Amino acid sequence: MTKARIIDGKGFALDLRTRIAAQVAALKESHGVEPGLAVVLVGNDPASQVYVRNKGQATLAAGMQSFEHKLPDTVDQATLVALVERLNRDPAVNGILVQLPLPRQIDPAVVIATIDPAKDVDGFHVENAGRLALGLPGLVPCTPLGCMMLLRDTVGDLRGLRALVLGRSGIVGKPMASLLLAADCTVTVAHSRTRDLAAECRRADILVAAVGRPEMVRGDWIKPGATVIDVGINRVAGAAEGKTRLVGDVDFAGAAEVAGAITPVPGGVGPMTIACLLLNTLTATRRQNGIAAPDDAEA
Ligand SMILES: NC(=O)C1=CN([C@@H]2O[C@H](COP(=O)(O)OP(=O)(O)OC[C@H]3O[C@@H](n4cnc5c(N)ncnc54)[C@H](OP(=O)(O)O)[C@@H]3O)[C@@H](O)[C@H]2O)C=CC1
Ligand SMILES: Nc1nc(=O)c2c([nH]1)NC[C@@H]1CN(c3ccc(C(=O)N[C@@H](CCC(=O)O)C(=O)O)cc3)C=[N+]21
Q1: Which residues are annotated as a binding site for NADP(+)?
Q2: Opening angle at CA 172, ends 170 and 177, nearest 5
Q3: ipTM of this predicted complex?
Q4: Predicted confidence (pLDDT) per residue in 104-148, tens digit
Q5: Which residue's alpha carbon is at the smallest distance from atom 29 of ligand 1?
Q6: How far apart are the first and last CA of the chain?
Q7: For the chain, what are the domain ranges?
Q8: What CATH class has 28-125+272-288?
Q9: What predicted TM-score, i.e. pTM, was given to this entire model?
Q10: 281 Cα: distance to centroid of ligand 2 (angstroms)
Q11: Strand pairing partners for 68?
């Protein structure tokens, strides 16, 4: 029997995208500016292709321009860097996303460092990462930004709550910890060297799992009534032969018995990532054009 409230990330994301679309339309009307997002996909990893397609559709649906660049997985680093430099100079491009992971011959740090920080809608550039760590304005990584929106909507006041972030990647775990700290949570970051992970998790009022291990977080690791945000996207074998299904990093059925609220996979954090990518593209476009956000804007 499920006890926890199921957090509707998909519904929240749809709503957010509707508000973004209205602001894009207003921006075109008032300033004649149309936000443009360039997505660069290297190779033909099927999962990445699905994300890129979904992002492209969502971009167009929000009234923004979408530019897709597909490169073969044999491409050399210099060619990819040259493409990013061209996108940096292109005035129609307000946001640049280079889909990760990249093939072995390419150093992701070099490519990310090439992106103009003002167009870095993933928030992965050291300048944006440093700004977030110092509490300065910048572009915030989409997945943690989306998690914070769901948390504020679910919990309300986060001040003083104990938060546990499981995972310390530069894409999810570290920026998530910075945002929770900025919201006055007491933050612990756990990783593969953490001792007695279950006990650390059990102390948390807010548990964010971004570990990439299918259903690793068990129901008895959860503090009763806690809010659980499951970032994990893991494809595992399904019930039927040859079929796969998506699961998170949390054992949903077990956790839902104990938690106060929990995000599902799919339909939780994933759709928020895409909505926040559009939000960051809108924010980047405004800043590049020196246009202030309206008072009622989301960000
Ligand atoms: N919903 C969305 O929009 C998105 C979902 N994701 C998903 O989120 C998950 C995490 O992604 P990402 O941050 O990129 O992953 P990474 O692989 O970069 O990082 C995983 C982190 O988990 C830690 N870890 C791994 N195994 C264990 C373990 N057994 N016990 C404790 N800690 C462990 C690692 O620790 P250490 O540092 O010590 O190695 C590392 O810090 C994945 O499932 C990914 O698919 C990612 C991005 C967006
Ligand atoms: N530079 C870069 N930026 C990223 O943000 C980035 C990336 N590289 N590489 C891959 C990861 C993963 N990621 C997801 C985005 C949306 C869903 C999503 O929409 N998921 C849906 C459905 C997914 C499905 O059904 O296949 C859901 O969870 O409900 C998932 C995962 C962004 N990533």
Answers
A1: 167-169, 233
A2: 90
A3: 0.98
A4: 999 999 999 999 999 999 999 999 999 999 999 999 999 999 999
A5: 192
A6: 38
A7: 28-125+272-288, 142-269
A8: alpha beta
A9: 0.97
A10: 17
A11: 39
